[in-house]
């Protein structure tokens, strides 16, 4: 698994950046790989691990207990209006994002997209009303470009802050709620897509009930100088084990969640990517956001391709780049694919010609000269398990 | 029987006129959980250093190369049902294919167990 980092700006990046938990991962038995310009754990190994280590074990542990992921490579940004003027900040963001930001009440979060003038997707992100500012979490491989793009288009009186002195952890899995409530009382009351400020051992931490595995869980922003201690406190709980990027990818694929750089690129748009929920209804009509005209045209007339889920027959995985066929006719391309540990068979996401996007359409994928049978399948492949309150 | 190793982490057992090929314990550990193995069809002519099989882990597909030239005489059918044999028994039950030995001299360039051990230690 790799993410394209070729278009990050080396000038903006510190030399050989090291993430705050680098030494901690190595101590935990991580195999480190380069990802988004950092050394990151792909998977763990060692006798000390309760899950035994390895992508499948880490994947299954997350589905059954709670996995601890380091996602500190992601960009944590703040957007603030003059004297904490939330309306001014919301207006500025709404010029760049297709979602309704103004009506997002304090502590609420929303999935959104940065879209270019042509309607292409620059990045996907989560925006939170963290009054007196909005915060955004953007993809690690895109963050320098995102920062440049946002800075260029923000009015002068709006401040953009990059919280690069904060680590970001994700605690994901059915035990995450109970584990975090015990360590940071009050967090158990958060429901999916809400967030708040909490205190742990004298440090302010920002806790969101969100994630990218399809499981209940949290993303937790922790001061870099406190994060090792916090990670130790989490794995001291017998339900929590470290989980690497390998399982993060297989988990998000099962959950039907697109990965930027693969399933989403500037060559894709919100309509063909089927991310209409990111385009707030009122704003589809009112416009006023970058890329509105080309996206509105696609909403009205449809797109040539659509992102679909594919269940692949047999055991041979179809991976990114594999071509999709209907008989002799090439009709699409796989953008991510792999073996689903939960389902025990390969799954994939692909963009296919819109005529072939209907559920149960039988297609073929070419892998090393062989044709694999595949069927268009609704996503998520594995049911999501979010906490929306009692 | 003699066992040789390649710097691509294949092993080859030579017994008379035929040889058995698999990947080393080091290789399976690097690959992680194996979910699929594509063994070559019987009758395939393989060239020393050329593609012979494909092993798919959760992460990625990797090529397995022929340590020497020859003709494939059998693929390990057990890997179809249980590809994880490559993880649990890489240098025994998880073998990939059996082949004829086209040119015995090609074995000369391969490593013995001791040389391979030193090679892996240096990685």
From TrEMBL, chain A:
This is aminomethyltransferase. GO terms for cellular component: glycine cleavage complex. It comes from Pontixanthobacter aquaemixtae. GO terms for biological process: glycine catabolic process; methylation. Residues 306-382 form the Aminomethyltransferase C-terminal domain. Its EC number is 2.1.2.10. The keyword Metal-binding does not apply. Pfam families: GCV_T (PF01571), GCV_T_C (PF08669). It catalyses: N(6)-[(R)-S(8)-aminomethyldihydrolipoyl]-L-lysyl-[protein] + (6S)-5,6,7,8-tetrahydrofolate = N(6)-[(R)-dihydrolipoyl]-L-lysyl-[protein] + (6R)-5,10-methylene-5,6,7,8-tetrahydrofolate + NH4(+). It comes from the Bacteria. Belongs to the GcvT family. Residues 22-280 form the GCVT N-terminal domain. Substrate binds at residue 219. It is an enzyme of class 2 (transferase). GO terms for molecular function: aminomethyltransferase activity; methyltransferase activity; transaminase activity. Gene3D superfamilies: Aminomethyltransferase beta-barrel domains, Aminomethyltransferase fragment, Probable tRNA modification gtpase trme, domain 1. Keywords: Aminotransferase, Methyltransferase, Transferase.
TrEMBL record, chain B:
The modification N6-lipoyllysine is found at residue 59. SUPFAM superfamilies: Single hybrid motif. GO terms for cellular component: cytosol; glycine cleavage complex. It comes from the Bacteria. Keywords: Lipoyl. One of its GO terms (biological process) is glycine decarboxylation via glycine cleavage system. Residues 18-100 form the Lipoyl-binding domain. Binds 1 lipoyl cofactor covalently. Its cofactor is (R)-lipoate. InterPro entries: 2-oxoA_DH_lipoyl-BS (IPR003016), Biotin_lipoyl (IPR000089), GCV_H (IPR002930), GCV_H/Fam206 (IPR033753), GCV_H_sub (IPR017453), Single_hybrid_motif (IPR011053). The glycine cleavage system catalyzes the degradation of glycine. The H protein shuttles the methylamine group of glycine from the P protein to the T protein. Belongs to the GcvH family. The glycine cleavage system is composed of four proteins: P, T, L and H. This is Glycine cleavage system H protein. It comes from Pontixanthobacter aquaemixtae.
